[in-house]
UniProtKB/TrEMBL annotation:
InterPro entries in the record: 3'-5'_exonuclease_dom, 3-5_Exonuclease_domain, RNaseH-like_sf, RNaseH_sf
All residue ranges annotated as the 3'-5' exonuclease domain in the record: 31-202
Full protein name: 3'-5' exonuclease
Domain of life: Bacteria
MF term (GO), any: metal ion binding
Signal sequence annotation: none
Protein's UniProt keywords contain Nuclease: yes
Single Gene Ontology BP annotation: nucleobase-containing compound metabolic process
Pfam families documented for this protein: DNA_pol_A_exo1
Gene3D superfamilies tied to this protein: Ribonuclease H-like superfamily/Ribonuclease H (3.30.420.10)
Coiled-coil ranges (or none): none
Amino acid sequence: MQMDTPQHTPLLSKEQIRALPAFQNLSTDRILVIQTLEQCKAIQAELSSIQVFGFDTESKPTFKVGEKSTGPHLIQLATPNKAYLFQVSPEVLDFLKPILENEQQLKVGFGLKNDAHIFRAKDIQPNAMIDLSKSFASFGYRSQVGIQTAIALLFQRYFAKSKKVSTSNWSVKNLSPQQINYAAADAYAALLCFEQLYQQQLLTTQLLQQIRRILEGSADKA
């Protein structure tokens, strides 16, 4: 996805963001919905060769006070050419555990603090998870930035976010086309943002050092 990338953009209003051309997600034939361990094993070698994943999760929302989430119900991994949507079951989560814990495979996304907490509660110790939400100081943003603003800043595109879809039931057996598109876009867009921030050296020094150590370590093992 080649786009003109501004070096510096003033703070954008919601109206300015909505007026931008639409973000282009992966086509449906490049989005894999994975429900079984057999499907996982079929792509195991493919996944093991990937250094950097765009990453996100979705969970069935909770609406009652004190209600505990049973998520994640969907785990998304994305490459520049493909998105993998894993519908979570005990077997699928066991399959993903080595990837989530792998210190040599980057998982990049936005707002990952809660994801890490959820995984630890399921006896998964996530490693090499890079949260990009505080990486936009060079654009004038001192606080956390969401993926919609990030795409607008880096690519001058409007990344639509449907509240209806985001708060839908992610634990259903058959995801809707809207859910599939939404989930894939979140992970894919996160990867594009990471690549752009990394190439332009807009990440913090601390994050850059961490990422280089991981990438160099995985290159040494190759």
